[in-house]
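User: Predict the complex.
Assistant: Input components as received:
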Amino acid sequence: MPATQPPVVDEALALEHGLTSEEYDRITQQLGRTPTYTELGIYSVMWSEHCSYKNSIAVLKTLPREGRALLVGAGEENAGLVDIGDGLAVAFKIESHNHPSAVEPYQGAATGVGGIHRDIFTMGARPVCALNSLRFGSLANPRVRYLFDGVVRGIGDYGNSFGVPTVAGEVYFDPAYEGNPLVNAMSVGVVKVGCVASATAKGVGNRVYIVGSATGRDGIHGATFASEELSEESEARRPSVQVGDPFTEKLLLEATLEALSAEVVAGIQDMGAAGLTCSSCEMSAKGGVGMTLYLDKVPVREAEMSAYEIMLSESQERMLVNCAPGCEKDLEAIFAKWDLHAVAIGIVTGDGRVKVHHKGAMVADVPAAHLVLGGGAPVYQREAQRPAYLDTAQTFAVPADLAPYEVAAALEHLLASPNIASKRWVFEQYDTMVRTGTVLGPGQSDAALVRIKGSRKALAVKTDCNARYVYLDPRRGGQIAVAEAARNVVCAGGAPLAITNCLNFGNPYKPEVFWTFKEAVGGMGEACRALGTPVTGGNVSFYNESPDGAVFPTPTIGMLGLVDDLEAHGTASAFQDEGDVVFLLTPEAWDHRVAARELGGTEFLAHNHGITAGRAPHMELTEETAVQHAMLRLIRFSLVRSAHDVSDGGLAVCLAEKALLSDGLGAAIALDVADPFRLDALFFGEAQSRIVFTAQEVDSDAVYRALQGIRVRAQKIGTVAAGRLQIKVNGSTVIERSNQALHHIYDQAITRQMGSA
Amino acid sequence: MNVGVIVFPGSNCDHDAYHVARHVFGLRARFVWHKETALSDLDLVIVPGGFSYGDYLRAGAVARFSPIMERVVAFAEAGGLVLGICNGFQVLCESGLLPGALLRNASLRFACKWVHLRVENADTPFTNQLQPGQVLRIPIAHGEGNYFASEETLDMLEANRRVAFRYAAADGTLNAASNPNGSLHAIAGIINAQGNVLGMMPHPERCAESILGGTDGAHIFRSLMAHAAHRLAAGHI
């Protein structure tokens, strides 16, 4: 593609760039003239949904964003920042890479991982762990298996080489994601308070450097691609997908942290979506300054790149650095040590405008503030309308209850659901241990525990979202996504601190989609307030639609928690010792009948009966808060040997998992339930706010004493035993299975479809 | 004992090895940047895990040409102790300090998990605190750990007791299910002819503290410390 005469800019070209007529008018009015081709490119990416949040920001502002541990508020920097004491802070964020992964799964997922890590280390934080949240269609579809395999390899190859452990995540399969998989990646980093870098340009006259990789034509209009629905033509978007280079990212990480600690950097921002455009405009706008860029100086990897292409390239592993005055030589030496480019391409100016020169001409001259979110970027309140599907989906013909003799087979069938079965095939392809910080990793605890070396503390981190609940009941589903993430952190021994979120929805111009978005965010906000976990930022991904329709609304929550005393409070999911007492912790007013009357939204209904219907399961936030408070108190009193929350698959799957994740231990469980109840709902219902934990027999009384004054109930339901899971209901044995038999099903379900790991 | 941990730009287990040497065992330890050339102050050089120079070509293939590897070869030839872990093992093979090569795992997938090793030779500076036949539980994390060598080389390694560790079941028996990557003779680690260079795919630095779920890796560091103490007592400095 040699440089030719740029196309003539008019409204039709603006529409082709994804702008609306009104937006194009705003641009010509602001500039007082027709934009140049390069300017049109700049506006189109800056005002794309991906960069501007134009259709979501009004709703996002309803989320709680204040908290005493927050050092940086949502949207102020590249990621949220939370104080964890000892002079340390944690930067963390989750982001989507759905559309790239749908057309090029390996590179799409890999660059998603790379991009989110850059958001963290551009703040001066060293990434200590990565998480992810993945959604695919049915594994029976060969295209889905190709996507799943490519995404897992992409995440693994990038993270493994970069040297940050992938410690937790979730994977769900549902036909709703058939044409539009979701790939959300999260990074968590640690930085000394006071050493945090800012994505702000400052100091008129300071030099602006581009550092890292050379700029190529890859990823041009990636942000725009992310802001439209997937279609038959999406395959042609493959060139919009960037290519990842984890080795260069590793060099960039080390060089960046070295430059920051040498105090040669006045401001820094990574180049992700919209590359040089977004970083220069956002840094300028935030600093209230301008920037003049000379594109002929940008190291390029392809000949004859136009200004438009250089400004819009999304080549990976690059940063824009605002050099501290007089430190140019030191900055250049540090990047040279790591064999990376560091080239001065511009200067900070005082006029608030981003001016771009190329081949002796000024090709763009735009006011930075007019381009950015919070400045002149458009903000829309979209029309919202309750979707008609909810009326039909929430009512359904309830299938006949299971007979007692059918329950064990139903459990086995459920354990073979890829949504329940062991994800070992996935996480063994990730380096989960590098950096020797991972104390409890995938399959070991409800949230991953990553120690902070040199202290007694650990981070407890988890991603969560049961999107089926959100589909069936957006508000309660949004609440449950937050509550379950927090509950997982609590079960691992952590106090939940704050969340990041990745909101994956369909086309916001469809009123039904926008209604579910508003409702889900509303539910999330309610749960965040109840649990005291403010939102530190995140990412919105709209247009997750294929010709078959929108995905389930999927507001993925990334939860950060803190364990004060890792050795004493770090808690595993699995049974620990034979003879320990098995307790079920629930809200005070609860008995088994609460679970035993509803099946709505359950994995059992979906997998065993093929029905996606009903309401999301029971949850009251006051009950949930009490249960989490109680669990954390028990752990802090050192009374808990293991803890695992009741979630997908209900009580029976929770107990089976506690056995299957253990070293050959099972349990003898006896449930007493008053009539009337449904056996299937008792075993597989997913009523929330329940945790199964174990304690030593001698501590039983201490457990009850510790819970006095909290509105919860702990019931002894059994004892940890060797090698078998036996569950009786009102005295009759309903399930009796050896671990070995269950292992065979649980361990093999995904591997059998994907080939051996 | 003075420990040096080589740092290639793509090393990512360098800090882990340093942490164990310095903070778990209290040894004097320093990082050795790949552009450095002085190793004479060291008793033990660790070539750590990671992706030395990106390893897009073949693991370790570029590292062998780095200035530091020339010095490491000379250091080893002069009798210095060299421990190559994971990528370090790959680099030592590429550099000719150890025979054979590490191919892609038979599964063609990266594998990170705990495995069992059977100690084959407890009479080396790296294994003297272990018993022959003893089983260690230790993590692996690699995509290219499938040990390959010619039949002649394998015979030579076996005849000279140069296989230090083999992948095995928890009870020490050898079987295909316990071999995580298809290595010939289930080889997980080998030594050089002089016995002062060990390359191993598993990560002892990931299991030297109880909080990480196992401490069997500590035996290797203790063996090295015992060896150094013994040499000191024998008058070598």
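The longest strand of chain B covers residues 111-119.
Let me know if you want any component modeled separately.
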